[in-house]
Amino acid sequence: MTSQVTKGLAVGFIMGVTYRKISSLLQSRLREYDITPEQWSVLRQIDQSEGLIQREIAERTGKDKPTTTRILDHLESKGLVYKQTGPQDRRSYLVYSSERGKALIRDTLPIEEGVTEDVKQCLSAEEYDLLVELLLRINDHVDQIIENKDRD
Length: 152
Known about the structure:
This is MarR family transcriptional regulator. Keywords: DNA-binding, Transcription, Transcription regulation. The protein has helices at residues 3-6, 11-30, 37-48, 54-61, 65-77, 99-120, 125-151; strands at 52-53, 81-85, 93-97. The chain is mainly α. A hairpin with a 7-residue loop joins strand 2 (81-85) and strand 3. The chain is globular.
């Protein structure tokens, strides 16, 4: 998108289009591993912190509960994760990555890192750091707006 095309477009629209393009790039590179970017991000969080409950996974990946449930079901059916009943609450499950899941993350982490490096090619290191800082600031600000609205 050129600056002429983006005049008047909302930042959320531009961010959404950019997200979909980056996600599509990652998806094309993950295709041979039979995993989507959404499934990969959930598996990555589980692999980094074994024994998470569904709510924690949803929070860490920015997904709602039904979407997280669906993704976990797919990952479990592929043999990439397994669930164990929580010791304190038998209604909740702790989720772990299987050996197959761990191997998939090891094999695909360089692919995800490569997509990030490809994106960085159009930015200086300072611009990339600023972009990440600004996106995190926007994310936190929108969270505060939503929390304040929920209290009203």
